[in-house]
Design a protein that fits this description.
6% of the residues lie in helices and 54% in strands. It is mainly beta and 215 residues long. A hairpin with a 2-residue loop joins strand 11 (146-155) and strand 12 (158-171). It is globular.
Length: 215
């Protein structure tokens, strides 16, 4: 599989890697299978290191992967068997071309809210989305006594506020910004938003996570 990396975020002492099958344009989440369940476990840094470098947003790699059973809204889970090698870092024009050829929903997962209620999850058949947004603002916000990164942006004429930003990587063209925390205002950006497979909100819902940014 030729795999375009959209997000590399850190979770549960491992890395969650989301992206797109470059040939079929289907969303893919790479992980490890968990015995006796449909869960997709995070990967180690060794699993996602190529030529001495951990995968980053914008990479195009060749990977051996095997489809895993559907797990709730996570229909895209694949077992990463091995990374065959690095193909290249996609250019800004190549990324724009990929975006032009994928499906663009009206909303970032159903509506403009920060999370989805459990009853809404039954209508969600994917947990990864790649969106071109305007007016992206990444800012700090104190929540439950902790300083957390949040994102405001506009997509398809709608405004989204205080969407949680995970411990992810931001890829800038022509410069590489590295990992969060990065705050700032960006006129236009591509963002990857993912959904967890478990409830993770004070409101008993499923948070939408900004897990990758390309500016």
């Amino acid at each position: 599989m030729r795999f375009f990396v959209l997000a590399v975020s850190y979770k549960y002492r491992g890395f969650c890697v989301a992206g797109i099958n470059f040939d079929t344009l289907e969303y893919v989440r790479l992980g490890k299978p968990v015995s006796a369940s449909c869960d997709c476990a995070p990967l180690s840094s060794t699993d996602i290191t190529v030529n001495g470098q951990v995968l980053s947003v914008g990479d195009l790699i060749e990977a051996d992967a095997k489809k895993l059973p559907v797990n709730g809204c996570q229909t895209e889970n694949y077992e990463l068997i091995r990374i065959v090698g690095m193909i290249k870092k996609l250019s800004a024009d190549e990324i724009a071309n990929v975006y032009c050829n994928i499906y663009h929903p009206d909303f970032v997962f159903k509506d403009t809210s920060r999370y989805l209620a459990p009853i809404e999850m039954s209508d969600v058949n994917t947990s990864i989305g790649f969106f071109k947004v305007q007016g992206l603002i990444i800012h700090n916000q104190v929540s439950n006594g902790k300083n957390r990164l949040k994102a405001n942006f506009r997509y398809n004429g709608q405004t989204y506020r205080d969407i949680v930003v995970t411990d992810c990587r931001i890829c800038g063209y022509p410069s590489q910004f590295g990992s969060f925390p990065v705050t700032g205002t960006f006129r236009e950006a591509y963002i990857t938003v993912t959904l967890p497979n478990d409830e993770w909100a004070e409101e008993n819902g499923f948070y939408k996570y900004v897990s990758g940014v390309i500016i």
